[in-house]
Amino acid sequence: MHSVSSPLRLALTNKANHLSITITVTMGRIIFYEDRNFMGRSYECSSDCSDMSTYLSRCHSCRVESGCWMVYDRPNYMGNQYFMRRGEYSDYMSMMGMSDCIRSCRQIPMYRGSYRMRIYERENFMGQMMEVTEDCESIMERYNWSSGCHSCHVMDGHWLMYEQPQYRGRMRYFRPGEYRSFRDYGGMRFMSMRRIMDSWH
């Protein structure tokens, strides 16, 4: 009995230690400004924020000092999504083609490990299935799916999926989980995908 339980406790201890280190390393930081060129009032954020209007009435520029972030043009992580990595965005609306201000943001956890996703030709995990472990710039060319991907199961890693080939068009962030339908995303279909890599942080 002792020989079975002892390694389990050791594994849990190692896992807990790893988790505490990961939390320390992945503390992201993003600063939002009311006006372009980092002018006006500012709000510093180090975790998810569901409604920016609580802190700023408007937001026209930002600095990502650490981490990777998804920003949204609606509160509660709704609306169009945009990916931001470390850097300065003095006028992000024109730089990224946004038509509205950032209203909410979500930090993407730093991840080191394998990437694995199953994509399906139809909703509810129906139709042809392919397992993906690397970036794919055109689902249509690689798998001959003319209508793209309509459901997916993300098993490992964090991914960005795009409505057009070559990582163009509107994007969506996918973390591990099952996605039976993309109707909540306005019925989008996805034609390319890429991994959010640790090297992007």
From TrEMBL:
Record key words, sorted: Eye lens protein, Repeat
GO molecular function per UniProt: structural constituent of eye lens
InterPro entries for this protein: Beta/Gamma-Crystallin (IPR050252), Beta/gamma_crystallin (IPR001064), G_crystallin-like (IPR011024)
Gene3D superfamilies named in the record: Crystallins
Domain Beta/gamma crystallin 'Greek key', chain residue ranges per copy: 28-66, 67-109, 157-197
GO biological process assignments: lens development in camera-type eye; visual perception
Family of this protein: Belongs to the beta/gamma-crystallin family.
Protein's job: Crystallins are the dominant structural components of the vertebrate eye lens.
Name of the featured protein: Gamma-crystallin M2-like
